[in-house]
Amino acid sequence: MLRYLLNKIALVIPTLIGITICAFAFVRLLPGDPILAMAGEHGVAPARYEQLKEQFGYNLPIWQQYARYVGEVATGDFGVSISSKRPVMEEFKTLFPATMELSFFAMIFAMVLGIPAGIVAAVKRGSWFDQSLMGTALVGYSMPIFWWGLLLIIFFSGYLGWTPVSGRIGLQFFFKPITGFMTIDTLIYGKWDAFRSALSHLVLPAIVLGTIPLAVIARQTRSAMLEVLGEDYVRTARAKGLSSARVIGVHALRNALIPVVTTIGLQVGTLLAGAILTETIFAWPGIGKWMVDSIFKRDYVVVQSGLLLIALIVMAVNLIVDVLYAVINPRIRAA
Amino acid sequence: MMSQSTELTPLAASPDRMLGFRTFWHYFSVNRGAVIGLFVFILLVLAAVLAPVLAPYAPDVQDKTAFLRPPAWQAGGSAQYLLGTDAVGRDMLSRLLYGARFSLLIGAVVVTLSLFGGITLGLLAGYFRGWVDVAIMRVMDLILAFPSLLLALVLVTILGPGLFNAMLAISLVLQPHFARLVRAAVMAEKSREYVVAAKVAGAGHLRLMLRTILPNCLAPLIVQGTLSFSNAILEAAALGFLGLGAQPPTPEWGTMLASAREFILRAWWVVTFPGLAILITVLAINLVGDGLRDALDPKLRRS
């Protein structure tokens, strides 16, 4: 197990280096002068220009610049946002919980619907339920989620007036974040109306962000179940006279969930890419919207750090999924 | 199952060039969804090609007397503008028809570029192995480490917004999937007898790679190509929606959605139709992709 773990970590190192090179190269690949690019639309005075060049180390050889950049990043220094003048890491810390909360609920939505639907479809293979579920899943998989979000807004916010159009919580509520999860913080403060407001803001974005993972999970659960239902141990369990619910719920499901768990873990990249669109549509103050806004504000320090941080998160989660996979599936460890 | 094998026997006996296609069509047409998808896709191609004939108006003609006119069947709409008009009085139907051109162009260009890049890199990596392989595949892993839309977004920031740059960025992002597939297929085929025989017969590296091995790796590439086609359309529309893809007044569906956003609570049709067009196109192509996978990959064939 330890060898497996070390092996996985060793494989991650080149990717880690590659990610830092990409983020480092990003600012230098921008058309024009990197300092002028980072200074934004207002430009800089010549004296300040030289000072900045010195400060950012642009007169050093390129490999020293890179070493310097890695050193800064490793110590948690991601620079200062050009537009807000706040440290990038500080902004990230306030915005990231919003994306986490949204992704978490999106994943809950996808799993709670997707796993049971996939199981039923597999058990009743070929039935109308199976066929319509797989059809729906393909529609979900093909969905342009930015449009899906707009449709839901038109129907639920515009036509029915059930949910707010954008944001995280009603403007009348203000309190100091504790966990950064609105749904938890409001409960800690014991404010029920604030909690309801937070929840009603969360519903639509979570559905939109969860749609593609839902389709993927339903399909994956179905095919994993189909594979397992044909195995000898399932037949043995049935032959022993166990109830059908027990055979499906215990013997088959436990094994079928192994690939499903992996799929769920690998959806993190999809979630973060989806968050870029979902957060933009719903004005959700998370890192996806932060990236898009920063691109338009030409705040390249933020874009660079956002790129690095998001890639690091995806990489870390994938590593954890790999390890978890080995923990729940002993067969993989030997390989 | 019996009926299928008896049907196929006479085909297998005749050394017909059409044989491959007929076997393929036999398996493909079993999948009803795939046939429907193919039919819709053909309609879309026709719509794109015949857009100047079919569209009642040019895509950028503005009618200053008809801003945000609803579709014909709704109160206030008229047969003059079947699907209504947008905020500056342009005919929605005409713009949607012209938009099909952009989406299909995006799909075709992106798949061509990423196929070309992926085949080249995958062949090199799988054929030569060693450090070439390590170097190429690490770079592919790196590209896959980023969420695709994020990477495309950042690349477009570097290259500058626009349809062509968006296509370049998406090709680069999708290309590792092809490289991985080709590499895996090449490694599986390389030690087969027919390759060894060709080598013994004196075939050079290039001939071995392109003429001997590559044609036998085509099936998974075609399936991946179809899926990438629909992915490319989705991602390009997303970039257009974010304002970094095709720029207005281009009637690209994602870009149309972006400019429709501010009217979502007032004029449902300017938002609904472009997105529906994207969904139908992507869905049709994915249906065809599923059918192709069933038909081309014997391992996944329904038994």
Structure description:
The complex is a heterodimer of chains A (335) and B (303). With 335 residues, chain A is mostly helical. Chain A contains 14 helices and no strands. Chain A has helices spanning 2-29, 34-39, 46-56, 62-74, 88-123, 128-141, 145-159, 182-188, 192-229, 232-239, 244-282, 287-296, 300-328, 330-334. The longest helix of chain A is centred in the C-terminal third of the chain and has 39 residues, at 244-282. The model of chain A has no long low-confidence stretch (mean pLDDT 86). With 303 residues, chain B is mainly alpha-helical. Chain B is built from 13 helices and no strands. In chain B, helix 7 (148-159) packs across helix 8 and helix 12 (253-260) packs antiparallel against helix 13 (268-296). The longest helix of chain B has 37 residues, at 92-128. Chain B starts with a helix and ends in a 7-residue tail after the last helix. The model of chain B is unreliable at 1-14 (pLDDT under 50).
SSE sequence of chain A, one letter per element:
HHHHHHHHHHHHHH
- Bin the strand percentage of chain A: under 5%
Helix content of chain B: over 70%
Q: Sheet bearing the most strands of chain B, described?
A: none
Would you tell me the structural class of the helices and strands of chain B? mainly alpha
Alpha-carbon Rg of chain A, integer: 24 Å
Instruction: Please compute the radius of gyration of chain B using only Cα atoms.
Output: 23 Å
Low-confidence stretches of chain A: none
How many DSSP E strands of chain A? Answer: 0
Overall average pLDDT of chain B: 86
Mean pLDDT of chain A: 86
- Biggest interface: A-B, 46 and 42 residues
Count the beta strands of chain B. 0
- Regarding quaternary structure, how should these chains be classified? heterodimer
CATH top level class name of the domain at 99-303 in chain B: Mainly Alpha
**How is the CATH topology of the domain at 99-303 in chain B named?**
MetI-like fold
What fraction, in percent, of the residue positions of chain A are helical?
A: over 70%
